[in-house]
Amino acid sequence: MSIKRVTIALLFLFIIVSLGCSFQEKQPRIIPMEDFFKNPEKAGFELSPNGEYIAFLQPWENRMNVHIQKIGEDKVTRITDATERDIWYYFWVNNNRIVFLQDKGGDEFFKLYAVDIDGSNLKVLTPYEKVKFYIIDDLEDNEEEMIISMNKRNPHIFDAYRININTGEIEMIAENPGNITYWTTDHDGKLRIAIATDGVNKSLLYRPTEKEPFQVIEKTSFKETIDPLFFTFDNKNLYVSSNIGRDKSAIYEYDLEAKKLGKLIYEHPEVDVYHLIKSKKRKTITGATFTTDKRHVHFLDDERKQLQDDLEKQLPGYEVAVFDFSRDEMKCLIVTYSDRKRSTYYYYNRETKELIKLAETSPWINEDEMAEMKPITYKSRDGLTINGYLTLPKGVKPKNLPVVINPHGGPWTRNRWRFDPQVQFLANRGYAVLQMNFRGSSGYGRKFWEASFEQWGKKMQDDITDGVNWLIEQGIADPNRIGIYGISYGGYATLAGLAFTPDLYACGVDYVGVSNMFSWMKAFPPYMKPYIEMIYEMVGDPEKDKELLESASPLFHVDKIKAPIFIAQGANDPRVPKAESDQIVKALEEKGIEVSYMVKDNEGHGFMNEENRFDFYRAMEKFLCEHLGGRVETQN
Predict the structure, then answer these.
(1) Which end of the chain, N or C, is less packed with Cβ atoms under 10 Å?
(2) Judging by DSSP bridges, how do beta strands 97-102 and 111-116 pair with one another?
């Protein structure tokens, strides 16, 4: 070969090596941490009953507050002035009045407030201390009242009350005999269905009118479900989700007079079906929703399906959901989303076909810089199919990557395909993120759920471990750079992973996680009493199953832990009390194990306030970088 040809070949090779980014995706910039976790620009949109106004949450003084805007006008009116904590939930009770909830420091003793849409006539409807309540019916045909349940009379149980949304006057309309855990009304706002429990058995109670006593019409174990959804539109029967005689829950019409399941409305062979959607105006059910890898709708109504098809044509490339209608159902709110883009909200007028973009939740997020969340499956060691999601960092080969394992909370919930700011933050820092729906995760049928009973730290943890080993076998994970991070039950799973598989993880981040099964159960609040026996059967009885719970409690196995830990806790957490974190931090320090501890005095079960989120994720980023070697934002 001539010198000229050799020179050209070497030059070409140099160009290929030097400009390798031209042949593979470029790793994205380090996006500021605060971009992932700061409050949305706008979120939580709701449409007024007449369809003329929208309400939404928007930051004011660094807290999410309720704002009102008339469709087609620019003027925005802020109607709340929360400065201590975000307002996380509100709704319209009529065209002129909004109800919202607020707790103190994350204690979850929410109070109910009402305010007019011009910001006047603010009223605390439930001014009681240490009282919890739930909404039973907002009574959309009643401009003055709604129905709630409260444990005001007895902290262990919830009675039903009618409450005036202007004055706060309350009237008890049903006294709880001590075993009722759920109330529901018919389409006329009459209280006619209840669920009772003796701890391990559930009873469906019914009465034809409010003048008659409730009667038990069906009794099952808590493992068998007949969950009321809403009455049929003639108020004679009930739509329910049930797993009676089957593994996967399906939607039925329940015959209240015959006291049995009637017509099967919809079932899915792979997953539970829990939800129906309906047209109140046309008095018909329009579809059933379910989740496999993603959320899906099976339409039962041509008009509703046509609306969906029309919207998807106008908003291609994203998941499209209609989530709110005006009373006449001619105006609605739409949300679009994906795994790489946060929610975008739209207003749609079905008469004029006008589609108006209202807001992007986080317009500063560039979806092209975000990583794909890919549905995956793997097999557990005993043969179960475990579904999950794998998010790989952009711009790097999926080989020998640092990994963060992220088990979900609950544990009887599930991970979903969506934009997850935590996952995208970690992927941007160079980590592969694996989320798995281990046994017990909701939506996969009764057998899969029951397979989790008395398996905290056991087979449930094995499912997580098997996911880690699957990633290693795929060549994706660097076996020496695997961390685990989770919230609530995910925090417990983090501690369990470090204690029971100490050679698997290089570090862990426990966010409000249980460390001691005995002290956690002992601290259950009074309103958890009706569920205690059920929890004992699902998790373990502290007296009958002492050895089991001791073997599953990370606190008693601190001596096995090798990896450094970062623990975060809200001081007012009612679900996982601060003592759960205090005791394991003390035990780790006594054993000489590296532990960092962050406590926020004005938080509960997770950090709601923006500045506290920033502190947590900034500390987590540095901790993971130190122990797993991912990227970190340079602080100015």
Answers:
(1) C
(2) antiparallel
Residue numbers annotated as active site: 488, 573, 605
For residue 587, the tally of other CB atoms under 10 A from its CB is: 20
User: How many whole angstroms separate alpha carbon 194 and alpha carbon 518?
Assistant: 32
Angle at 47 between CA 45 and CA 48, to 5 degrees: 135
- Domain parsing of the chain, residue ranges: 40-270, 372-628
The pTM is what? 0.93
| Per-residue pLDDT band at 184 (split at 50, 70, 90) | very high
Token pair for 403: 């990994």
- The 3-state DSSP composition of the chain as helix, strand, coil percent (nearest 5) reads 25, 35, 45
CATH superfamily of 40-270: Prolyl oligopeptidase, N-terminal domain (2.130.10.120)
pLDDT tens-place string over residues 203-240 = 999 999 999 999 999 999 999 999 999 999 999 999 99
**Distance between CA atoms of residues 483 and 563, nearest Å:** 9
Three-state DSSP string of 543-586: CCCHHHHHHHCHHHHHHHCCCCEEEEEECCCCCCCHHHHHHHHH
Q: How far apart are CA 405 and CA 293, in angstroms?
A: 19
Return the axis-axis angle of helices 459-473 and 489-500, rounded to nearest 10°. 70
Q: Of 353, 334, 337, whose CA–CA distance to 345 is shortest? A: 334
CB 431, CB 488: distance < 8 Å: no
Closest-CA residue to 71 (of 89, 45, 37): 45
**Which CATH number describes the domain made up of 372-628?**
3.40.50.1820
pLDDT, tens digit (0-9, with 9 covering 90-100), for 29-55: 999 999 999 999 999 999 999 999 999
Q: Residue 415 has which token pair?
A: 């991970």
